[in-house]
Amino acid sequence: MAGDRDVDTSLTLLERLQKSPDDPEAWAIFVERYQPRIRMWCRSWGLQGSDADDVAQDVLVKLFAALRKFQYDPSGSFRAWLKTVTQHAWCDFVRARRKDLGQIADRVDTIVDSVDAQSDLERQLEDAFERELLEMAMRRIKARIKDSTWDAFRLTALDGLSGVDAAGQLGIAVASVFVAKHRVHKMLQEEVRILKNEPS
Fold this sequence. Notes:
Blueprint: H1 10-19, H2 24-44, H3 49-67, H4 78-101, H5 105-113, H6 115-144, H7 147-158, H8 163-170, H9 174-195
């Protein structure tokens, strides 16, 4: 899984790609994280599989060029920037394929301008970005706490076990499981807030 690699989030990827734009591992992780989202958006708004693959590929090519010049600003929105690049690639695709698309060209043009389509793409990219922040926060918290505390949180919050079942598995009191879960949950909220550069 990409989250287990030595790269925490898109923010870290951006830093890596700025320092070394030809870093193949960083690009592989970026593609792994964002190509499925872009493809899913294209499919959900009417493109067939091969066309969705083409648009996703076009987006990634544009991103490759754009990220070389992109300067990350923590007060700005990487997601909004990514959405804009995706929409431009979609528009370029429609213009290039207008003759080939035939009857669906009008539908694709409508989708490009659709507020729903734009909101849907933004939501999907937002979800991917939030998941990456949470994964990074979890790795940071896990490194700072006892294994038993993390395991109590993981078993209940991530794996869905009851407090009783988690306590039995870990050999600790049920109350200790809930205390650990609550503690890690609060730590995660704070860590995500820090990662987003939000004020306390």
